[in-house]
Specification:
The protein is of the alpha+beta class and 119 residues long. It is 23% helix and 34% strand.
């Protein structure tokens, strides 16, 4: 009986060491999601006005709701009454730093949205 158990353990050990050729599959549905050169923003305000240019004096071009995930395409620091403030550019317009949280990749931004409990 002892020999049988030893042989069984030996077979199990050797079988687990056999290389299995299982191909690794990558999710290529969103190629920009993990690009290290692209940053993403999540709107943290319940309602954020999107401006046509950086600064509160610009015309309002639209709005975003809390939990929107946006690709950052530019950044500008603007001086104002309360000191200097960073503004982020998106395809739709500009948002101030206080209205968004910035993340290094889209996956982290999606996780942040889940933690906000929005979507």
């Amino acid at each position: 009986m002892r020999r049988f158990l030893c042989a069984l353990a030996l077979c199990a050990g050797l079988c687990s060491c056999v290389r299995q050729n299982v191909p690794v599959q990558f999710d290529r549905s969103d190629p920009l999601a993990l690009n290290p050169e692209i940053r993403w923003a999540v709107v943290t305000d319940p309602y954020a006005a999107c401006y046509a240019d950086a600064g509160y004096g610009a015309a309002v071009a639209g709005h975003f709701r809390r939990g929107a995930i946006l690709q950052i395409i530019g950044e500008r620091t603007v001086g104002g009454d309360n000191g200097r403030e960073t503004w982020y550019a998106f395809e739709e317009g500009w948002l101030p730093q206080g209205a968004v949280a910035v993340y290094a990749n889209k996956m982290r931004a999606q996780t942040a949205v889940k933690e906000l409990g929005v979507r």
